[in-house]
Amino acid sequence: MKKLRIGIIGAGGIAQSRHIPVLMKLSESASITAICDVNEDTAQLAAKKFGISSAFTDYKEVFNEKTDAVVICTPNKFHAEITAAALEAGLHVLCEKPMAMTEEECRKMIEARDRSGKVLAIAYHYRFMKEAQAAKKLISENEIGTPFAARARAMRRRKVPGWGVFTNKELQGGGSLIDYGCHLLDLSLWLLGNPAETEVSGTAYNTLSKMPDQVNLWGSFDHQSFEVDDHVTAYIKFANGASLLFETSWSANIERDDESLSLSGQYGGIDLFPFSLNQSKHGMLLNTRSEWLPGEDDYALSQARNFINSCLGSEEFMVKAEEAMQTTRIIDAIYSSSKRELY
Fold first, then answer.
1. From edge to edge, which strands make up the β-sheet containing 268-271?
2. Helices (runs of H) and strands (runs of E) counted in the chain
């Protein structure tokens, strides 16, 4: 069986905690041939830690005859540039979420994909969760009818990432919405069938993270220079009449973290976390909870396998670039609705 030879671009936390370990578990179908980071020490240390033979500081050096595909784990600012360059060099690409900073950048990535004929995959790995797959199956089999309303919350209590560049607006483009909330936003859009959005209203806040004497469970940060959103609310309407009520936060004053997504259709509704099918049938109100769901517990592993197989031609990647571009477009519209002013 042919192995896919993969280079990693960006050797930070997401590469070392997720992408490299799962690719190593799939060694029968893929091998990591190179790693790159602008920080030479980071690249060299990661190469030594994971036994990767080549380490570079210039991503273009990864584009060689020993590489078939790349996984891009850089700050958001560089997603579009590196993705387009890799595709033009004849490589398949798995790019970390969000796809890019703007819709225009996403379009350039898609144009490069179309010219190259290579795979362009975006790492919205929540779609690979067992609950997400089960919900999609029930919707496709008309168990709830056409979903018309979705409610999504991606809420953390006092967990602003105090490492890396997560709070750097220039490099990331935003905070809790573009980093964390994007997962539940993308998942909601996919389960709704990615209908065209017609109206987006949102407000972005960073009041909590501007306060002194921070209690933060994920490291420390400078409250005086904090410049990105830590809490966002939004309401989105779609051309087919559906709507989405959405909220995300890094630092909410809530009892506990809350990841939740529910959908309502004519014949029933679905809650994803925990998974439940809620219906009115046979003159009864029925709530069906799952005892077991098929699929991988490690959804990052499912994502990596899907990417490898799509590059080798045996599968189609689940997250279409055009769908990921819609997520970016709505993120930008939420920020624009808030006029990029933080409250």
1. 197-205, 231-238, 243-249, 149-155, 258-264, 268-271, 276-281, 284-289
2. 11, 14
Q: What is the pTM of this model?
A: 0.96
Measured from the Cβ of residue 249, the count of other Cβ atoms closer than 10 Å reads 29
Q: 172 is written with which tokens?
A: 């990331």
Q: Would you give per-residue pLDDT tens digits along the chain (343 residues)?
A: 689 999 999 999 999 999 999 999 999 999 999 999 999 999 999 999 999 999 999 999 999 999 999 999 999 999 999 999 999 999 999 999 999 999 999 999 999 999 999 999 999 999 999 999 999 999 999 999 999 999 999 999 999 999 999 999 999 999 999 999 999 999 999 999 999 999 999 999 999 999 999 999 999 999 999 999 999 999 999 999 999 999 999 999 999 999 999 999 999 999 999 999 999 999 999 999 999 999 999 999 999 999 999 999 999 999 999 999 999 999 999 999 998 666 6
For CA atoms 218, 175, 305, 258, the dihedral sign is positive
Q: Give the tokens for residue 170.
A: 């220039």
Beta-carbon contacts of 323 under 8 Å, excluding residues fewer than 6 positions away, are 186, 189, 190, 194
The residue whose two tokens read 């009449």 is: 241
Identify whether the C-beta of residue 137 lies closer than 8 Å to the C-beta of residue 195: no
Q: Which residues contact 313 (CB under 8 A, 6 or more apart)?
A: none
- Determine contact, residues 36/43, Cβ cutoff 8 Å: yes
3-state secondary structure of 80: helix
Strand ranges in the chain using DSSP code E only, listed in sequence order: 4-9, 30-36, 54-56, 69-72, 92-96, 120-123, 149-155, 197-205, 231-238, 243-249, 258-264, 268-271, 276-281, 284-289
Question: How many residues are present in the chain?
Answer: 343
Q: Which residues are 69's β-sheet partners?
A: 6, 92
- Across the strands, what pairs with 12? none
Upstream peptide bond of 75 is cis (omega within 30 degrees of 0): no
